């Protein structure tokens, strides 16, 4: 099963709290955070690793657990599977305005049109970020990242309202499963992509 955890990283904006967690992350993560010039970016980077580290300890997960991290706005996210030899990708994005120029350039035509068909600016923004986190989660699950052309795979929703791939590159012949998370207390869109057929419908909160 894939489980998803989220944490509010705003406590790490306090220097004392940030340094406490900073001292307990691996050297490569410190270097990654140090290269970031904005404090909030540093807090997200250290917060994401801290979230994963605490989840790993709390759930007594082995070192070879398949996992993925993401962060945006006030949030850090991690998703992991209790199965080996699976793919897992997750993405969280703070909801802002619909980036129509991005959607027109990088999304499939029907995805772009779906965004335009929404009745209000708020609904267009919501739909844009639903597509965005789904696409990011797939890119991360395949480990291709931005090297994977977003126009080579297309999302839709089935009759039950669940996201699924309408098309995908031939080299990814596995079955991919998706879940969206949206809670009123989370001001962001969240999606998970995995080859593990079981995804926990609940998102878990961890306080840093």
Give a concise summary.
With 208 residues, this protein is α+β, with helices and mostly antiparallel strands. It is 35% helix and 27% strand.
SSE blueprint:
Layout lengths: L1 E7 L6 H8 L4 H8 L4 H20 L7 E7 L2 E7 L6 E7 L5 H7 L2 H8 L4 H21 L12 E4 L5 E5 L9 E5 L6 E7 L4 E7 L3
Parallel strand pairs: 1-9
Antiparallel strand pairs: 1-3, 2-3, 4-8, 5-6, 7-8
Helix pairs in contact: 2-3, 5-6
Describe this structure in words.
- The chain starts with a strand and ends with a strand.
- 35% of the residues lie in helices and 27% in strands.
- The protein is of the alpha+beta class.
- It is globular.
- The strands form three sheets. A four-stranded mixed beta sheet has the order 2-3-1-9, covered by helices on one side. Strands 4-8-7 form a three-stranded antiparallel beta sheet, with helices on one face.
- Helix 2 packs antiparallel against helix 3.
- The protein contains six helices and nine strands, in the order E-H-H-H-E-E-E-H-H-H-E-E-E-E-E.
- The longest helix is centred in the middle third of the chain and has 21 residues, at 121-141.
Low-confidence stretches: none
Whole-number radius of gyration?
17 Å
End-to-end gap: 24 Å
Largest sheet, strands/sense/barrel: 4 strands, mixed
Mean pLDDT: 95
The shape, in one word, is globular
Instruction: Please give the order of strands in the largest beta sheet.
Output: 2-3-1-9
The percent range for strand residues is 25-35%
Helical run tally: 6
């Amino acid at each position: 099963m894939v489980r998803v955890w989220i944490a509010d990283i705003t406590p790490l904006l306090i220097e004392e709290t940030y340094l406490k967690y900073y001292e307990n992350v691996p050297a490569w993560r410190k270097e990654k955070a140090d290269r970031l010039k904005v404090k909030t970016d540093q807090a997200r980077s250290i917060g994401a690793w801290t979230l994963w580290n605490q989840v790993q300890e709390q759930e007594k997960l082995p070192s070879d657990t398949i996992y993925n991290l993401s962060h945006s706005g006030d949030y850090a996210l991690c998703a992991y599977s209790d199965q080996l030899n699976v793919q897992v990708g997750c993405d969280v994005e703070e909801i802002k305005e619909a980036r129509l120029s991005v959607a027109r350039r990088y999304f499939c035509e029907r995805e772009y049109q779906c965004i335009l068909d929404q009745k209000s600016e708020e609904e267009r923004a919501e739909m844009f970020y639903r597509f965005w986190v789904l696409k990011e989660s797939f890119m991360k699950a395949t480990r291709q990242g931005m090297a994977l052309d977003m126009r080579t795979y297309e999302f839709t929703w089935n009759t039950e309202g669940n996201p699924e791939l309408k098309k995908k590159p031939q080299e990814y012949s596995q079955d991919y499963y998706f879940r969206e998370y949206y809670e009123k207390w989370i001001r962001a869109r969240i999606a998970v992509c995995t080859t593990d057929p079981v995804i926990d419908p609940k998102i878990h909160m961890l306080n840093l």
